[in-house]
Amino acid sequence: MNKKTVLHILFLLLLSASLLYLTRSWLMSLGILMLLLLIDSLLLQYDNKRRREWEERRRQQQEAEAEKENGDK
Question: In the chain, what percentage of residues exceed pLDDT 70?
Answer without folding.
Answer: 97
